[in-house]
Every structure is written in C-alpha cells, then in structure tokens.
C-alpha cells in the first residue's frame, strides 16, 4: 500500500498503538484526543494477554513486560477471611498508566494532539473528512475511530451506537502498597477473590507509578463489582461537583458521605482483608459495565478499533489485548493489499468474529460473576 494520510480519533491505548505501528510503516499519522491533559497517572491495573506483549515488542517498549508484578497463586476467601481454595497460577500484572505513558512517548513531535475533540467524521469520494469541535476540518485517506464506548466515528458507518448497561458497576481502587493495612497482607502476593451471590471483589499488586517492583513501593489494585439498578444509575454517576457522567465517575468525585457509606458496606459485606484494602482507598472511581457490538467495523475510508468497535466486560481482561489485535490486523492488511478498500474489508472479516467472541465471553463471565 502507498503511504496514506491517516488520522486517528482517540488517544488512549488503541489509538496510540495504531499511531505507533502505522507511522513505522511510513504512513503520515496523527492522533486527535479530546482530553486536554492526557492520562498520565490515570487508570489502574491490567492483566496483559499475548497480543499486548506482541505489540509492545513491535513498538520497541518490550522492557515494559519486565515491569510487571507476578502473583503466585489464585486465592478464594470466604466471608471470615479464610482461604477456601488455592491454585498455583503464576500471572503477570502491569499498570495502565505505565503502559500509556511509554506508548505515548514513542510518537514523534506533533503526532499526538491533545485538546482536539472531533465532532463528526464523514466519508467522501476520495477519503474522509474530520470536523473538529472548534469548527475546523481536515481530510485524510483513512480515519481510524479509536474513540471508545461513546464513539462519534461510528456514525460515519451507519452502525448502531447504543451501548447497553449490564446492570452492575465496578468500583476501583489503587493504593500504594505502603498504605496496605497489615491485615490485608494475605492478599499481596496473590491474585485474590471473594465471590458469593451478589458480591464479587478481586485484587492484585501492580508496579509503582514509576514501574517500581520492590516490595513496599508497588500498588494494590482492587475491583468490586456491585449491582446498581438502571433507575439509580444517573445518581450513582453524579459527582460531588454536580456533574453527571455517562460511563465512569472519576477519582475524587465521590462525596464524603458516599465514601463513608461505601466503607461501611465494605465492613459489613467483605472479608476483613478486602474490607481493609477497600477502606484504605480514599478516592475510588466507579466504572459502569456496558456491552456494545458494532455490526460493521469499516467503510470506504473509515475503520473502528478497540472499544469503539466492541466494548467487552472487564472480567475477560481482554480490552487492551483486543485493541492490540485490531491494530496489528489492520496494519497487516494495509501492508498486504494495494487498495485501501480491500485492506479494510479483509481487516473487518478478520476481526468482527474475534470481537463478537470476546464480547460473548464477557457476558458469560459477567452472568456467573454476580
Ligand atoms: C483513563 C483510562 C484509564 C483506563 N484504565 C484501565 C485499567 O486500569 N485497566 C484496564 O484494563 N483498562 C483500562 N482502561 C480501558 C482500556 O484502556 C480499554 O479497554 C482498551 O485499551 C481499549 O480502549 P480504547 O483505546 O479503544 O478506548 P478508550 O480507552 O475508551 O479510549 C477512547 C479515547 O478516545 C477519546 N475520545 C472519545 N471521543 C473523542 C472525540 N470525539 N474526539 C477525540 N477524542 C475522543 C477519549 O478521551 C479516550 O482517550 C482505561 C481507559 C482510560 C481512557
């Protein structure tokens, strides 16, 4: 394929993976991200799968795989805090912020444009046009929608854009290991769960903010899934600033009264090691759990990748690896084909079924999780 002008909407992991791989192939690539400050210091922990290690190697940041904390065993606790099941299952956990910062830092000057929200994308006879919220426009041979669950790029493809609330949310915490209460030390070196009908919490260690792996300098990541009735959803996602968020309540937005109630719930419902770890987090965030499946991932000059195409439930631990798989597949088909439309068609037929399968797995895991 000749070098293309490629514009990417959305500068989280999918967009940044794509920008890195496609510029390396000689395309003229820019990423437009609506956030004005980027996401350094955001996110929590993730369990990388094969595709993530593969793309890190291709981007030239394979050393990141070494910045992972290895958990020894999978533990299941009962309500009294006793271990009821233990299985030796070593597994590596990395931190989202370290991955984001390393991948963003590999882009060239001017390639990652922050504070540039895109309001619409339109396909034309010769490519696609981006319209920005500031009223300016730009044309490109190919526009990639990496703009996540609320994607505006989807609209250019006439694919549905409604995501479906799954009826529960994930409260998330990330605390410095040094702040872990003594009573929670059982959780530290293991991937631990407490699961009973209606309650599901898990936790594991991830590296420190600069990739620290020394005991005492790492961070503990926990995720507590909880039901929220659809009618209560807007209230649950309204922050102390008065803003109602659509998909997630960011850190720092929980009111002191709700934080206190949350701590009491932890004490009443969870085994002591988890309750103490939850109470040690003073600024938890809340993520709504949604399902979304695009019927189409491509048009003549537009492609969807990552969460813009399929939103999968976090139980799969595959959101980031699915994004990496999409990007490597798109890059491969652009390399192999002479015509853009052929490359896009083949990319879609390779990735549509993969997205559907992971989305279905997420629903199944979700159904048995709570
Ligand atoms: C701040 C943050 C923290 C996260 N932390 C974790 C974590 O700890 N663990 C985990 O497993 N997953 C985490 N995720 C989710 C994970 O990154 C995704 O599931 C996966 O990487 C695929 O995401 P994506 O890049 O397709 O979409 P997203 O990560 O949702 O990114 C979409 C991007 O598009 C931008 N955007 C949206 N609309 C527009 C527009 N109109 N114009 C311009 N830009 C737009 C958004 O600001 C966002 O940066 C996090 C995501 C974010 C944004």
Structure write-up:
The protein is an alpha/beta fold and 370 residues long. The protein has two domains: 5-63 and 98-162 and 293-369, FAD/NAD(P)-binding domain (3-Layer(bba) Sandwich), CATH 3.50.50.60; 69-94 and 164-289, D-Amino Acid Oxidase, Chain A, domain 2, CATH 3.30.9.60. The chain is built from nine helices and 18 strands. The protein has helices spanning 13-24, 50-59, 96-105, 185-188, 233-236, 256-269, 272-279, 319-336, 340-369; strands spanning 5-9, 28-32, 45-46, 69-77, 83-95, 112-113, 118-123, 128-132, 137-140, 142-145, 164-176, 191-196, 199-206, 219-227, 248-249, 285-293, 302-304, 310-311. Helix 1 packs parallel to helix 3 (96-105). The chain is globular. The protein starts with a strand and ends with a helix. Flavin-adenine dinucleotide binds at residues 9-15, 32-35, 39, 42-46, 96, 117-118, 146-149, 152, 306-308, 319-320, 323.
Short synopsis of the structure:
With 370 residues, the protein is of the alpha/beta class. The chain has helices at 13-24, 50-59, 96-105, 185-188, 233-236, 256-269, 272-279, 319-336, 340-369, and strands spanning 5-9, 28-32, 45-46, 69-77, 83-95, 112-113, 118-123, 128-132, 137-140, 142-145, 164-176, 191-196, 199-206, 219-227, 248-249, 285-293, 302-304, 310-311. It folds into two domains: 5-63 and 98-162 and 293-369, FAD/NAD(P)-binding domain (3-Layer(bba) Sandwich); 69-94 and 164-289, D-Amino Acid Oxidase, Chain A, domain 2.
């Amino acid at each position: 394929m000749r070098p293309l002008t490629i514009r990417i909407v959305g500068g989280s992991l999918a967009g940044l993976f794509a920008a890195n791989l496609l510029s390396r192939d000689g395309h003229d690539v820019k990423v437009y991200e609506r956030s004005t400050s980027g996401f350094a210091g955001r996110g929590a922990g993730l369990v990388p799968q094969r595709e993530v290690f593969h793309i890190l190697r291709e981007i030239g940041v394979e050393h990141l795989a070494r910045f992972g904390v290895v958990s020894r065993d999978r533990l299941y606790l009962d309500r009294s805090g006793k271990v009821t099941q233990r299985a030796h299952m070593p597994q590596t956990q990395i931190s989202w912020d370290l991955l984001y910062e390393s991948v963003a830092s590999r882009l060239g000057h001017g390639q990652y444009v922050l504070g540039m929200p895109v309001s619409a994308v339109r396909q034309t006879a010769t490519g696609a046009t981006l319209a920005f919220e500031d009223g300016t426009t730009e044309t490109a041979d190919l526009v990639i929608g990496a703009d996540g669950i609320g994607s505006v790029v989807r609209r250019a493809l006439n694919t549905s854009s409604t995501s479906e609330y799954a009826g529960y949310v994930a409260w998330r915490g990330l605390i410095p290991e040094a702040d872990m209460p003594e009573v929670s030390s059982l959780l530290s070196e293991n991937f631990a769960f407490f699961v009973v009908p209606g309650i599901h919490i898990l936790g594991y260690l991830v590296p420190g903010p600069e990739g620290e792996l020394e005991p005492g300098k790492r961070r503990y990541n926990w995720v507590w899934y909880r039901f929220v009735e659809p009618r209560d959803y807007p209230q649950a996602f309204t922050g102390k600033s008065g803003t109602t968020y659509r998909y997630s309540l960011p850190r720092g937005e929980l009111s002191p009264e709700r934080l206190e109630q949350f701590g009491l719930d932890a004490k009443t419902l969870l085994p002591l090691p988890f309750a103490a770890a939850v109470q040690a987090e003073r600024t938890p965030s809340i993520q709504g759990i949604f399902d979304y499946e695009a019927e189409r991932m491509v048009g003549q000059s537009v492609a969807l990748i990552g969460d813009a195409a399929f939103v999968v439930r976090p139980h799969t631990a595959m959101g980031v690896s699915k994004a990496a798989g999409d990007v490597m597949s798109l890059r491969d088909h652009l390399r192999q084909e002479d015509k853009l439309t052929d490359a896009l068609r083949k990319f879609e037929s390779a990735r549509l079924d993969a997205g559907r399968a992971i989305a279905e797995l997420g629903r199944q895991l979700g159904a048995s999780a709570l």
